Amino acid sequence: MTETSAAGDMQMPQTTTRSPQEIAARLERWMTARLGADAKPRISGVDVPATNGLSSETVLFQAEWHEDGGRHRQSLVARLAPESTAVPVFPVYDLGRQFGVMELVGRLSAVPVPKVYWSEPDPEPLGTPFFVMERIDGQVPPDILPYNFGSWLTEATPEQRQQLQEKTVGVLAALHGIQRAQREFAFLEPDGSAPTALGRHVADQRAYYEWVVADGMRSPLIEACFEWLEAHWPSHQGPTALSWGDSRIGNILYRDFAPVAVLDWEMAGLAPPEVDIAWLIFLHRFFEDIAADNGLPGLPDLLRRDEVAATYESMTGYTPRDLDFYTMYAATRHGIIMFRIHRRAMHFGEAEAPADVDDMISHRRTLEAMLAGTYWSDRGL
């Protein structure tokens, strides 16, 4: 997720900082305990980049160790849960669950996920739980500045962007095609008594909102959006599928405009396919609206709602339905995250409390237009 000011100025929110030298030493001690003294692990090239995400911290490093009679060398990535002092975006960071999702997705589908090596729930080795996966080279559409402001995607040809779009929708098709998702990923089922996966998913998001506003600073706009969702509940709900949760192109590494690594599974769950489809569509619209506000052309030919739905149908035979509902749901979920991120920025002295609490939601006008039923028609989409 990213934070956007009203003027469109983009900045990387605060994250915790750890010394690369300290991380290397602690990783070596941990790998020695994990693999045994005979492995003689060595860690080098530690880098803590300013990445797209702010929810989990990413550490890149090179590791060498003895294995099967030879010296093994591997480029690796550690994903670290944020410390409590970092005022995390989400209430829980279950990295073991993310590790399990990635391992299963890699085993049960053709979705390109990095190989996962080890999961460490004990905070002692690095000060917080983490897991380790392989590092894959590729290009990611940047968040800061957004990819549609000017990037390798804006410099690509229309045909290349179309290829990226089709291959990305193909990731969702393959992910949702995993058989017996409710059984294989039962550990993702949230608490709740709602009779459907969509009902439980929405109830879980309501619970997240209540956690964000536990101090009493509530958002009338977000609450109006939840009321709208209840009033427009789909009469038909699609099959329960594994939901990536944060299905946006900024969470994919591409090579030659094709996905080579699908990342960031902390929002994974069980839901109808439309939850991921709408998130993919809306998160691009989020950046497109920022580009328009800044007088930039953006990428209007990318991830258009009807085109994404039609491509998904052609790949799966399943017709996405009720996309007005699901894109509103995506915008509402994103609104809760933006509300939390602004409050996080206030904590670190990067932002002030606005006179109107709903101005803490950077896409407030989008939500208001969706409530009024004018958002998509105003944009010719």
Overview of the structural elements:
The protein is of the alpha+beta class and about 375 residues long. The chain has 2 domains: about 20-135, 2-Layer Sandwich (Phosphorylase Kinase, domain 1); about 160-380, Aminoglycoside 3'-phosphotransferase, Chain: A, domain 2 (Alpha-Beta Complex), CATH 3.90.1200.10. About 40% of the residues lie in helices and about 15% in strands. It contains 11 helices and 11 strands. The chain has helices at about 20-35, 95-110, 160-175, 180-185, 195-210, 220-230, 275-295, 305-315, 325-345, 365-370, 375-380; strands at about 5, 10, 40-45, 55-65, 70-80, 115-120, 130-135, 240-245, 250-255, 260, 270. The strands form 4 sheets. Strands 3-4-5-7-6 form a 5-stranded antiparallel sheet, sandwiched between helices. Strands 1-2 form a two-stranded antiparallel ribbon. A hairpin with a 2-residue loop joins β4 (about 55-65) and β5. α9 packs antiparallel against α10. The protein is globular. It starts with a strand and ends with a helix.
CATH topology of the largest domain: Aminoglycoside 3'-phosphotransferase, Chain: A, domain 2
Spatial order of strands in the largest sheet: 3-4-5-7-6
Based on secondary structure, the structural category is alpha+beta
Q: Work out the helicity level.
A: 25-40%
* Number of separate helices: 11
Q: How many strand units?
A: 11
